[in-house]
Write a structure and sequence with these properties.
alpha/beta; Alpha-Beta Plaits; Rossmann fold; six-stranded antiparallel β-sheet; five-stranded parallel β-sheet; about 40% helix
Amino acid sequence: MKTPNLIHISLGSNIENRLLFLQNAVNEIYRTIGDIVSVSGVYQTPAWGFSSNDFYNACIAVHTFLSGVEVLDILLEIENSLGRIRTDGAGYEARTIDLDIILSSEGDMSTKKLTVPHPAMQDRRFVLIPLAEIARDLLHPKLQQTVGQLLEKTTDDSKVILLTDKIVNPKDKYDLSRFQYLTIEGNIGAGKTSLAQIIAKEFNAKLILERFADNPFLPKFYEDMERYAFPLEMSFLADRYQRLQDDIAQYDLFKDFVVSDYDVFKSLIFAKVTLQSEEFTLYKKVFDLMYKNLTKPGLYVYLYQNTERLLENIKKRGRDYEQKIPGDYLDKINKGYLQFIKSQPEFNVKVVDVSELDFIANRSDYISILEEIVL
């Protein structure tokens, strides 16, 4: 997964319920742009460059897979949705919400629509003070000074007052850490690893990923399933068991939040599909001995995706040894998972249908998954 951009955004409002406009803007930024990693306090400042009501100002830092130009387009849409009316006249004016990109990890940008770093940031205390609160040591790529240094040297002497009012980070309502140990499961190509990685990064979780690529039997299995099914499933079982034993032992589940992209029980699901009945009987005896000793997830999330989408995803990610996977094999795996879920009433399970979602390309799809998980 690619590294996200870090973008710092300045927010301001001086009409009606200023705090509410700031909060609503932050909520929309989280839903449509990316993970909000830092939120400054709220500051009351005089209108800059024109006579009007005082502003409420703040800054946030956002991790996003979008470019600065893409972010700008969404910010303009958010402004419009919150009642910002732009006029063609010159000069500044009162506004329900004002959203500006101040800095980006992309570095210098200069287009007809966007200039980053913001060309006037060093002259505005209402930007520098909240920005310094969350990014004092961040370096201005052109001026080669930190935000803290720019604040010390600015010629702007306007009065900026820290308020007791605060902006709430929208992701705080998704308290995934209460599950302590969260497992994301799904069929081949359902997106379980991608989702586990995103959740772990956004919620500062310990991440445990399956090492499927290291299994020497996997390419052979897709060439000759009947011959290589038993050694494949036994090697997967041994590796999954040992890996979870070792990794979970490193963490205190009362203190650490752990996310994995697999559970050992998947071994039994796949084995039931791939093994002959005599082989499966032997396999299950070994499995039962191992499974009873493992820590069980606090929440088990199964990403359901229809077979057509699974095949599209498998083709798109381009692993040679997966390209011959037949659709009926994926159908059997899906049915195996759903039968397992029904047979485990003691499990805390959420089935999330992602057949029509693209939670990597569409941030709002990802948020909808979080909503289903915490309901």
